[in-house]
Each structure stands twice: as structure tokens, then as C-alpha cells.
Amino acid sequence: MSIFDKTRAMFHLPDGVIYLDGNSLGPLPHHAQDRVDEMIRDQWGEMLITGWNKAGWMEQPSRVGDRIGRLVGAEAGHVVMGDTLSIKVYQALASALEMQPGRKVIVSDTGNFPSDLYMAEGLIRSLDKGLSLKLVDPDAIEHALDESVAILMLTQVDYRTGRMHDMADLTRRAHEKGIVTVWDLAHSAGAVPVNLAEVGADFAVGCSYKYLNSGPGGPAFIYVAPRHANEVTPALSGWLGHESPFAFDLSYRAASGVERMRVGTPPVIQLAALEAALDVWDHVDMDTVRARAIDLSELFIAEVERTCPDLVLVSPRDADRRGSQVSFSHPEGYAIMQALIAQKVIGDFRAPDILRFGITPLYIGEQDILTAASTLHRIMEDGLWDRDAYRVRARVT
Fold first, then answer.
1. Which of 174, 300, 305, 325 could disulfide-link 152, Cβ–Cβ 3.0 to 4.6 Å?
2. 276 SS3 class
3. Is 223 annotated as a binding residue?
4. Which 8-state DSSP code applies to residue 228?
5. 187 is in an annotated binding site
6. What GO cellular-component annotations does this UniProt entry give (predicted)?
7. CATH number, position 306
8. Could you read off the pLDDT of 9-51 as tens digits, one per residue?
9. CA-based angle 338:340:343, to the nearest 5?
């Protein structure tokens, strides 16, 4: 039995379904269901409020943060969990801006996830300090970096195409110009090797419900580099980011280190699911997963291009520049994806015309890839997508 046979057995996958959407929502780990049941029954049920002390609920965001930190190459004690990814983007960006008085420009790219850009726009508007958000083509980032720029805010792996920025190179170039970096690892954590400490990243954020499999609405994480951790000022100075929450001071005093980036009450039940989901990483390392993901991605690209000539690859052809997803475009991409889902091959669609497939070796194998490609070929060859029902847009695509 291979290591990936073992990890696949750790997940609940519905009968007959090939799941190529783990880059949007990871499947349920068996152990997570057991862990949540236990937490609800034995901790919440029996301990009631004493669970905050007896079960370690208060320490959970830091404990789990360290486990994610090991997957993204963070120094121990510099990742903490809580809230949503949008809130963590806001926190990181606001703190980074306060470190850069006199600089007015936030640089990002046109492929960044819209929510990150919305957070930046809202922050700029509320601060009302003459700040601006400058969006450039992903290939033009290095040419946009100069001494007027305060922050470089990028998602490492493009959510639509899977295009991957060179984090080490762009962080180095930014620092040469005195620019602070904020990296979004939503499509990186659990998918590609990341080493925040080695590249010298300033801030990083990410979600846990994609490749980390914490379940819908799972909590986000934030990383603050050790050199900044005791200096940054949290824009959202929440109760649990206070130095001594149960002193009930009427004014805020920041906790030490990354703990000050905590805001509200931690989502204990979802963190329990995430703790259990992370157990899969006790059996496999990130480099092994990455190598297998590349092999499966290359196979999928080859099969789809061989049998579905009307689909156009929009992901980088060079695997080293591509995250753990493969995307194709077609004017009828939405209908094609609905037809594919109806055949129990689940990917997703991203406007305007992109069919997106997550390649997650923890539970996807070679036969899944071949079956998915052949199903897609049949849908295209026989025009099975050409139905009115498949063109009706659902609220979530």
C-alpha cells in the first residue's frame, strides 16, 4: 500500500464521485467527524464553560497555528488562528501600512482574489490618508516596485489559473525598495511547499478549508515575522488580542507577539475539525505531495489536450510556475462544468469562462485523473453540456 493509499483512506469520499474541487473545499476527513463528535459530547457537553481551561480551548488558536506554521515554513509561535481570511487580510494590511508612514501605494495584481482587493479598497477609504491601490498584470509586478510603494500584497497562487508567483524573488525585490510584503496563501498551504522564514516574508494569511480540509467556513490563519511581532499595531484590537483579557481593562494593551492578532472568540468546534484534519500530515510531507500533484496534473493536461481540443489551457504549462490546480477555458465553461458534475466529476467554474480542477494527491489518484479526462471528453464529443438546465447559474459556481 502506497502512502497515498493510506491518506486516501483517511477521507470520506461519496461513492462514485471523483472530487477535483479540494482547492475550493476539502472533503471530510473521517477523523475530523470523530473529533468533532468527541469535542461536542465530552468537552462542550460535559465540561460546559470549564472547557476553556480544562480542554485548552483558549490555547487552541496558537496550538493549531503552530501545526499550520510547520506546513508553511513559519517560525514556531508566529502563526495564530481565528476569524475569516478577509479579516486576516485586513489585519495584516492595516498593520503593514502603519509600519510605512509616508508611503501611499499598495501594489497588487489583476489576478488577486477580489476579496483581498475589496479589503484594501475599504481600508483605503476608511483611513482617508491619500492611499491608493495599484493593480498591474501579474508579469509586471517587479516593474511596479519603487520607493513610493508601501505594501506588496499578493496571493501566491492565482485562484483562477493556478499561476504561481515566485515568493522568494518578489519578497527580495520588495525589501530592496523598503516595501513590506503581505502574502495570501489560500491556494498554497497544503498544496505547494512554502518557507515563510527562509524567504523573509513580513506577513502571510490563509484559509484552512481548502487543502487543509477543516470544513466549510473553517478559520483563517495569520503569520507575522518575528522581527515585527512585538511592534505591529493591530487595527482590530479585539478582546482576545489584549495582553490580559480577563483583567477587563477599559483600554487596549496588545498581547505579546502574534497573539495580539487574535480578535474574537475562537471557533472551537471548527478548530477541533481542523486539528483532526491536520493529522494527515503526520503521514506525508509537503515535497512528496507536491511531486505527486505535478505528475497527476501533467497527466490530466495531456489527456484533456489530446481528447478535448476545444478546451484551452490557461494554467502555466511549466509545472514550476503552477500551483496544485489545472484550469481550462471555453465560452460555455459553466454549462460544461455542470454537465461534468452531473456525471459525478466535481470541479468548479470561475468567471468568465474557466473550468477549474484541483489536483490533491491526498485522495486523488491516477485512475481518477484518467476517468475525469475521459468523462470530459465524452461530454465534449457528444455535446452533453448543451442543455438549458446546465446554463442556469447557481448562487455558488
1. 174
2. helix
3. no
4. H
5. yes
6. cytoplasm
7. 3.90.1150.10
8. 999 999 999 999 999 999 999 999 999 999 999 999 999 999 9
9. 115
